[in-house]
Amino acid sequence: MQIAKNLAVQIHYTLKNDAGEVLDSSEGSDPLSYLQGHGNLIPGLEKALEGKRAGEALNVSIPPEEAYGVRDDSLIQDVPRSAFQGIADIQAGMQFQADSNHGPRTVTVTKVSADVVTVDGNHPLADQTLHFAVKIVDVRAASKEELSHGHVHGPGGHHH
Ligand code: ZN
């Protein structure tokens, strides 16, 4: 069965940056399960996997435009310290969920001063070309429930 929209796919993968450092890998754990064509993976990786079969392996480099985006300086904002009431000790590197025009977004604190906290809404992997080594483990039809949820259930997927 070839990977196509609405199929449930299991992959093992290793993700490296331009410097060859491993950023993420499924080695030593369950393969990643995802639903093709539902935005579970970055667009460039879904595109590279389309049409592949279980047992195939591929290496693919994905530019930022098809991965986590190009850095957008307008996503860096100064927020009054008072917006963080109840959080005693704000430090650079902390992450928060914030509402944005594009839905919930993870922001990272980059600077803290007496009155102002600077947060950056760019994805930590923005601006990076990502290098994936992928092995396709399994391709199967998705259940009705998986299709209606937009993700895969069971090992390596979502649990309810
Ligand atoms: Zn579900």
Structural write-up:
The protein is mainly beta and about 160 residues long. The protein has two domains: about 5-70 and about 125-150, Roll (Chitinase A, domain 3); about 75-120, Thrombin, subunit H, CATH 2.40.10.330. The chain has helices at about 45-50, 145-150; strands spanning about 5-15, 20-25, 30-35, 55-60, 75-80, 95-100, 105-110, 115-120, 130-140. Strand 7 (about 105-110) and strand 8 form a beta hairpin. The longest helix has 7 residues, at about 45-50. Zinc ion (ZN) binds next to loops.
Largest sheet: 5 strands, antiparallel
General form = elongated
Mean pLDDT: 92
CATH architecture of the largest domain: Roll
Which strand-content bin applies to the residues? 35-45%
Bound molecules: zinc ion
> Ends: how far apart?
27 Å
Low-pLDDT parts are: none
Number of domains: 2
CATH class of the largest domain: Alpha Beta
Count of DSSP strands: 9
CA gyration radius, whole angstroms: 19 Å
Give the SSE string.
EEEHEEEEEEH
Q: Percent helix among the residues?
A: under 10%
Helix tally equals 2
How would you concisely characterize the structure shown here?
With 160 residues, the protein is mainly β.
How do the strands and helices of this protein lay out in sequence?
Layout: E1 7-16, E2 22-25, E3 32-35, H1 43-49, E4 57-62, E5 76-80, E6 95-98, E7 105-112, E8 116-120, E9 130-141, H2 144-149
Antiparallel strand pairs: 1-2, 1-3, 1-9, 4-9, 5-8, 6-7, 7-8
Bound molecules: zinc ion.
Residues 149, 151, 153, 158, 160 line the site of zinc ion.
